[in-house]
Amino acid sequence: MKDIMTAPFLRETCETASNMYRLGWDERNGGNISVLLDEAEAAEYLDMDRVLRRVQTGFDAKALAGRLFIVTGTGKYFRNIAKQPEKDLGVIRISADGSEAELLWGYSDGGSFTSELPAHLMTHISRLAADPLHRVVTHCHPTHTVAMTRVHPLDERSFTRSLWKTCTECVIVFPDGVGVLPWMVCGTNAIGEATAAKMKEYRLVVWASHGIYGTGRTLDEAFGLIETVEKAAQLYMLTAHLPILNTMTDEQLEAAAERFGVDYRRDFLDL
Q1: Which of 90, 121, 138, 180 could form a disulfide with 107 if both were Cys (CB 3.0 to 4.6 A apart)?
Q2: Is 191 exposed, middle or buried (CB count within 10 Å of its CB: 0-12, 13-18, 19+)?
Q3: Residues linked to residue 107 through DSSP beta bridges, in sequence order
Q4: To 10 degrees, the CA torsion angle through 203, 79, 84, 69?
Q5: Using DSSP, how many helices (H) and how many strands (E) does the chain show?
Q6: Which pLDDT score is estimated for 115?
Q7: What is the pLDDT of residue 148?
Q8: Residue 205 phi, psi (nearest 5)
Q9: From the CB of residue 18, how many other CB atoms can be counted at a distance below 10 Å?
Q10: CA–CA separation, 271 vs 69, rounded Å?
């Protein structure tokens, strides 16, 4: 059996967590990551018959029965993950009835998965229905995105339009727009259900006065989506209080989207 410390899925998760901390998106123990693993690949590094512990998932996750995930732990600091992945990460398998997560590796200090696991799993279910190649859910607290939720209306259309109009790449990178939720108590099934409902049509969901959920087929894709939203939110916050002399028209947003062949939200444009 191969050394799990050399597994690409573990190394990529560690690198992503370090980058998110470096950018200031995951202060203290803020934020979490979960990645759907390929069973054949994981079996090269793990004894699939050895279950270390069983923990309740907190909801009916039967739709993910038998699926494997690498997940950040509750109370863990992103800045430490690369140094001690065996403590701060865990590989779990969802039980046949969806009520339990079977720990196959990790959380060596007795810890457990992130308190946001129900929200992650609900989002995985939604995104897999929309895109069978989906694999990644990331949650973090990017500074300017959170700041923008304090001064901007919280409806998807206007929020997305403000981001799109800050710089050309936005309508190309997230042409499906950004979902937005009002403030809700985190770590609950209610916010998980609300997020999963939005994820049926968005890959990104902003939580007001809290952070953002980003998804993708790879860690790079999910990271890049959040990175682009955060850059746009920064530009918005730098300029929103100033007289805006130049901005992209809806016709120009349409032209950019058409040029790059992306499936954009036409109902978000006034044409």
Answers
A1: 90
A2: buried
A3: none
A4: -10
A5: 11, 9
A6: 86
A7: 98
A8: -135, 125
A9: 17
A10: 43
Here the tokens at position 164 are 């799109």
pLDDT, residue 258, reads 97
Q: How many CB atoms lie within 10 A of CB 186?
A: 15
Rounded to an integer, what distance in angstroms lies between the CA atom of residue 158 and that of residue 181?
Answer: 13
**Whole-number Å distance between alpha carbons of 121 and 59:** 9
- Under a CB-based contact definition with an 8 Å cutoff, are residues 115 and 129 in contact? no
Beta bridge partner(s), residue 108: none
- Structural tokens at position 180: 């937005």
Query: How deeply is 250 buried, as exposed, middle or buried, from its count of CB atoms within 10 A (0-12, 13-18, 19+)?
Result: middle
116 a catalytic residue: yes
Contact 27, 142 (CB under 8 A): no
CA dist 106 and 112 (Å) reads 9
The pLDDT tens digits of the residues spanning 9-55 come to 999 999 999 999 999 999 998 899 999 999 999 999 999 999 999 99
Distances (CA, A) of 143 to 44, 108, 147, 174, 184: 39, 32, 6, 19, 18
Contact by Cβ (8 Å): 139, 222: no
Low-confidence stretches of the chain (pLDDT < 50) are none
Q: Which of 35, 3, 2, 5 lies closest to 17 in space, CA to CA?
A: 35
Domains for the chain: give ranges and CATH numbers. 1-115 (3.40.225.10), 116-263 (3.40.225.10)
Query: 100, 102, 116, 227: which is the annotated catalytic residue?
Result: 116
